[in-house]
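User: Hey, my collaborator sent me this sequence without any context and asked if I could get a structure. I don't really work with proteins. Can you help?
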Amino acid sequence: MSALSKIRVLVVDDSAIARDMLERGLSRDSAIEVVGKAQDAFDARDKIVFLKPDVLTVDVEMPRMDGIEFLKRLLPQFPIPVVVVSGLTVEGSRHALEALEAGAVAVVAKPRAEDRDGLSAMLYELADAVKEAARADVSKMRRGAVLAKAARVLERPASGADEPRLIAIGASTGGTTALNTIVRDFPATMPATVIVQHMPPVFTRLFAEGLDKVSAVEVREARDGDELRSGLVLVAPGDLHMRVLRKGALWKVVCAPGPKVCGHRPSVDVLFGSVALEAGDKALGLLLTGMGRDGAAGLLAMRQAGARCLAQDEESSVVFGMPMEAWELGAAEKLVSVDDAVDELLARLAAPVGRRA
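Assistant: No problem. I've predicted the 3D structure and written it out in structure-token form, which is a compact way to encode the shape of the chain:
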């Protein structure tokens, strides 16, 4: 796809009303052309061959073959970026997360029936997700989804002092796979960790629950007022900003609504900015794969406050957008592979506060 050509999209949904709605919504964006619509996975398979779309939008709940099975069969043959469109029900969110594990690039939540203004906002969000997906390297999504790292034993990280440490991580497109790789390698004694992953409500809770099942640390969706401690990982709830506040010698999180920052809520910049103010040189920052620049300015603020700061390298990033912005700003001291991220964090934790490893 050239820089000047439109992004060719195939819409896959079993509802004719939904297909027409998505086509009209996406066609409002001058960068997107809906080249076809399919009513199920079998119809989509045939149209992919002839229409050669750049991106697919797929409803995970379809008859004959659901979107998850479709992805598992599709991507090995046709490595096309897929944006999942899913309901905000628990079951719909769970299926959407399974689709991300199967190699989908992003997920956009359908608005609730009572949300009158939600449809227009959802269609704009979907258009943005399609444009983001068009830049994604799907081979990295599949590689991360199907390859499991061997379990390893990590020694207790030494801080060089008794002062508590804090790790802050931000991610967007491709981040669910990257975070799965990273967090499941955390030792049980890992310092308190806060994460922003761009994701809708409900999805964040289920994502945290999934991480918790495969990790030595406790992982859960953050609640307003939660105190941070060693061995606990908190994921920002969808549609709420998460900030860190000092409470004596420790920290707690504040989860609250507010305007979108860099087009996102929760925003990585909001989290990182608060960590810079409240944790200073006791913090470590890591910015992972994603499109745009959310987190770059916040990571720079953290580094200027004395924190150790890393960003994911281009080779392992599904979209080298946010990490690249951070690197070009001078916010990251090093670009690291997702497979090496935990070792890099632990090496910096081993140095005394204020000292460089």
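In plain terms: The first helix runs from residue 16 to 27. You can pass these tokens on to your collaborator as they are.
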